[in-house]
Specification:
Elements (H helix, E strand, L loop, with lengths): L1 H29 L10 H13 L4 H31 L1 H14 L8 H8 L3 H25 L3 H9 L4 H36 L9 H10 L3 H29 L4 H4 L2
Helix pairs in contact: 2-10, 3-4, 3-6, 3-8, 5-6, 6-8, 8-10, 9-10
């Protein structure tokens, strides 16, 4: 009940903040504070309504979500799996620690020319550049979550005769889940950010919200570009809230603290 009330409060606050932002934008536009090419919010919202009513934006959303969610799923599977292994088994952790320190500071977008040479202008290239960007926050957060578990929990489980698989299921995953979900949340946001960047390289199908923004900019249609940006923001917001909802259900024992 408390969790539902908090969700309702958050939704109300989000709507109020969005309305205030749009009103401020409209007011400043009327005062000519912004350059003329920055459209009035009524124009942008009108474009969003038109794109949804004519359904022309749905293929772009479908393609962009496919690239984003496939990348995020790979991050969850590979990043979390390797993070648990590196956090629990010291030899694996010692192997990955220098690699993290070396590769994590590299701007992942710098790898784009390499991926383009190997895979061409394909979805494989886009998914790889999104994955490599979002992988490290998930991986590092998972390692920290596992390494932060008290040794007493492991000793107690081993003294009661628990196998390695039982320790993984009953000790490691429940105790590390809060940090793992934190890593997933950061990774999800990065997936949406890099989805836009990866689609800026162009596409033969001419589909994707990033390509839509690039194409609108080429024709000087700032209103359409801003409309697509708002759609990306809305999608990111919805999936972020969905992940938080899943987190609150998975961490049922921590739900009371989550609501504070």
């Amino acid at each position: 009940m408390q969790s539902n009330m908090n969700a309702v409060k958050f939704t109300v606050y989000a709507i109020i903040e969005l309305v205030l932002f749009i009103l401020l934008w409209h007011f400043l536009s009327k005062l000519s504070v912004f350059p003329k090419y920055l459209s009035n919010p009524s124009v942008v919202l009108g474009n969003i309504w038109e794109m949804f009513s004519t359904k022309e934006i749905f293929p772009h959303i479908e393609v962009s979500l496919y690239r984003t969610l496939v990348s995020f799923l790979l991050v969850i599977i590979i990043g979390t799996g390797l993070g648990v292994l590196a956090g629990y088994f010291k030899p694996v952790g010692r192997f990955f620690d220098p690699l993290i320190s070396f590769f994590n500071p590299i701007p992942k977008i710098a790898l784009l020319p390499v991926f383009l040479v190997w895979f061409g202008v394909t979805d494989t290239t886009r998914i790889l550049i999104i994955f490599t960007t979002a992988f490290f926050p998930c991986f590092i957060s998972t390692i920290d979550g596992v390494r932060g578990i008290s040794k007493l929990h492991f000793w107690s489980a081993k003294n009661m005769g628990a196998s390695q698989l039982q320790i993984l299921r009953r000790v490691i995953l429940p105790a590390a889940l809060p940090k793992i979900f934190d890593g997933w949340r950061v990774a999800l946001a990065l997936c949406f950010v890099m989805m836009f960047s990866s689609e800026m390289i162009g596409t033969s199908s001419g589909l994707g919200l990033g390509f839509m923004i690039l194409n609108a900019d080429a024709y000087g249609r700032t209103d359409i570009a801003l409309a697509a940006i708002f759609v990306i923001a809305a999608l990111g917001f919805l999936f972020d809230r969905l992940l938080i909802l899943i987190r609150s259900r998975a961490l049922w024992w921590n739900r009371q603290e989550e609501g504070k």
